[in-house]
Amino acid sequence: MNTTHCIFCNIITKSIPSYIVYEDDMCIGFLDIAPITKGHTLLVPKVHCSNILDFDLHYSESVMHGLQIVSNAITKALSVEGIQILQNNGSGAGQMVFHIHWHIIPRYADDGLNHWQGKATPHKAELQGIADSIISNL
Ligand code: 5GP
Ligand code: ZN
User: Fold this and answer.
1) Which residues line ligand 1 (CB under 6 A)?
2) Which of 24, 37, 62, 71 is the most exposed place for a label (fewest CB within 10 A)?
3) Which ligand sits closest to the CA of 21?
4) Do residues 28 and 104 touch, judged by C-beta distance below 8 A?
């Protein structure tokens, strides 16, 4: 992909403005332009990968480090009840920007976000079949 057309590559190079809250050699954290809660931040590696399917694993430790640093800062800065880390892969999962990113979502009492509902546990044979299918594709 030509990264000049990637909105997050343009944020990384500062070609377009953003509210950067964290930056090191390998990743950058900036406020989401349409926050789902106050302080909603995106943590983005400084390499253009689409999503988890092609993510450059050399950036893994840096991303985890950035997520932890920014989460701690948000926890100190804002009166949060918790932090949710979310990462969408593919349009079917709600991904809109195809430069991999992690959402750091501060959670507040009565913020209106609902945890997903638990569903019935499938039969053992069904779970075993699914597990076998995944394992055979590793
Ligand atoms: P996705 O659905 O791909 O996981 O999330 C993309 C996120 O990027 C959305 O929450 C959206 O609000 C945010 N976003 C899209 N364009 C921009 C932008 O130009 N600047 C910033 N700061 N965030 C953006
Ligand atoms: Zn990009």
Assistant:
1) 7, 18, 30-34, 42, 88, 94-97
2) 24
3) 1
4) no
